[in-house]
């Protein structure tokens, strides 16, 4: 089962864009975020990097049970969607986790998960997963 399906916000799939906009505007709670991070291979340090905040700030969100702002909530959703898509393409989370952590020639010898800190990087990974899904390997 993918991270998103374990998370209560089932509205985060691509077919519910308006619901996602509402969720982004309201902000994802730390409780909801914690539900996601338990089912992804990313460390707290990596998540703080992806969300452009210090690890200390991330811990403060946890302690104060804060909601993430719109930009951070959107990034959480984008990464969650990408993670679910990648797990689907590779058939399971373990294979996708390995792909995320291995240098990729098609991505300029970059480790894929290092691109998760920008929407352009996430888009590149989504495109690459689409090529893999359809057997178009570089």
UniProtKB/TrEMBL annotation:
Molecular functions per Gene Ontology: DNA binding
Occurrences of domain Antitoxin Xre/MbcA/ParS-like toxin-binding (ranges): 88-135
A Pfam family it matches: Xre_MbcA_ParS_C
Transmembrane segments: none
Coiled coil segments of this chain: none
Residue ranges occupied by any Antitoxin Xre-like helix-turn-helix domain in the UniProt entry: 21-79
Superkingdom field: Bacteria
Protein name: DUF2384 domain-containing protein
Origin species: Portibacter lacus
């Amino acid at each position: 089962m993918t991270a998103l399906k374990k998370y209560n916000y089932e509205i985060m799939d691509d077919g519910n864009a308006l619901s996602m906009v509402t969720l982004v505007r309201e902000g994802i709670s730390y409780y909801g975020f914690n539900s996601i991070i338990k089912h992804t291979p990313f460390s707290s340090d990596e998540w703080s990097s992806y969300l452009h905040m210090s690890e200390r700030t991330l811990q403060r969100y946890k302690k104060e049970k804060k909601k993430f702002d719109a930009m951070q909530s959107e990034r959480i959703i984008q990464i969650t969607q990408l993670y679910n898509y990648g797990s689907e393409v590779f058939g399971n989370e373990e294979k996708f986790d390995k792909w995320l952590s291995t240098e990729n020639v098609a991505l300029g010898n970059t480790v894929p998960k290092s691109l998760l800190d920008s929407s352009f990087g996430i888009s590149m990974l989504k495109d690459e997963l689409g090529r893999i899904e359809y057997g178009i390997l570089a």
